[in-house]
Amino acid sequence: MADTVIFGSLLYSHIIPPVLAFIGVILLCSGIMDRKRNYTIAGIVFFFAAGLLPFLILPVILGT
Length: 64
Description:
Radius of gyration: 14 Å
Number of helices: 2
Oligomer: single chain
Order of helices and strands: HH
Structural class: mainly alpha
Number of strands: 0
Shape: elongated
Helix content: over 70%
């Protein structure tokens, strides 16, 4: 059980947010340069999700 909590907290606090932020920046840059509003909006959503998801998911996983 402890290994699952440690791996889950590591996954949601240090692995997924940078990946989402990187994808968000790529989509944001691509959307702005190609003038595609859908890519730009998706990039903004991914970037903000990268910043907010750890604060929403980690309390549930850690039980606090």
